[in-house]
Amino acid sequence: MNYLYQRNFLRLLDFSNLELNYIIKLSKKLKKVKKNNKEIQLLKKKNIALIFEKESTRTRCSFEVAAFDQGAHVTYLGPGSTHLGTKESIEDTAKVLGLMYDGIEYRGHNHKTIEILAKYANVPVWNGLTKKFHPTQIIADLLTIREVLPEKEFFEIKCAYIGDSSNNIANTLLEAATILDIDLRLISPKKYWPEKEIFNICQEKAKKNKNHIICTDNLKKGLNSVDFIYTDVWVSMGEPENIWEERIKLLKKYQVNQNTINMTNNPNVKVLHCLPALHDKKNNLVKSILDKYNLKNGIEITDNIFQKYQNIIFKQAENRLHTIKAIIISSLIKIITL
Ligand code: CP
Ligand code: NVA
Description:
It contains 13 helices and 9 strands. By secondary structure, the protein is of the alpha/beta class. The protein has 2 domains: about 10-135 and about 320-330, Rossmann fold (3-Layer(aba) Sandwich); about 135-315, Rossmann fold, CATH 3.40.50.1370. The strands form 2 sheets. Strands 7-6-5-8-9 form a 5-stranded parallel β-sheet. A 4-stranded parallel β-sheet has the order 2-1-3-4, with helices on both faces. Helix 2 links the parallel strand 1 and strand 2. The longest helix has 23 residues, at about 310-330. The relative contact order is 0.16. The structure holds phosphoric acid mono(formamide)ester (CP) and norvaline.
């Protein structure tokens, strides 16, 4: 029996340890059969709607390639191309799409929107990123963690997240750590700690096992002996441009660079980044910010550290495809035989 059948995928706290491990295991299998050219199409005749109210490279391509590999069809609904939330309510749009499609992916601003979509669509809805959560990303990161550190179970892993700990990546890591018993340290100035509501729910749940989730502004305390350092952009999609000044001022100390790596006291520490990463001057945004704030080398991560750990970081990106495929299949197919 597949307990994920017809379930939404909105946030990780909706799932058990067993269920998250099941998705990761299925992703591994799907990755293997694709690499061996032995993939069986389980999603023939399925139609999938992809709503993107924000830009995307990895998430959109992963949903599309996963669907094509599996024989499903997709409709891409880009920013401003539907009536959603303007001329038509989210509820009505959900009902219409639910009558035409077998599943709906949504990337947008407010998490409430995806909750309303899920409530009325009557088909599985998958979260491709909201301001609050990015669960398909973290599932890919968990698969990557498994692959690059196979000798450790999740409950043995220590991970530090540095940067804006109030964003969707930090919130979702927090939920993953809660369910899988990962030792997680969110390291940022207090101003950028997660919302109390999310942190308290997670801490309450985590306490039942061991107290393995902390927020700290102390780099040394947070980084000591970790297996992984995870970082993400300091300004997320949808945030105003003028927030950069404050973020640079408060987060400068929390850049992933050689100094932060040294503070782990772990010569085998590994670095994760969900991408896009602002690490070199090859894009105009980074160039203009570095010039404006008189910074030399990368924003949330320096270029030399990014280059050193790029194999792991691009593995995370590739794993988006295999894990998103697993998420779609497990919610649309009742009995999965690979
Ligand atoms: N990491 C991630 O979600 O990338 P995209 O914004 O390119 O989808
Ligand atoms: N926190 C980032 C994640 C991008 C994948 C954002 O929301 O823009």
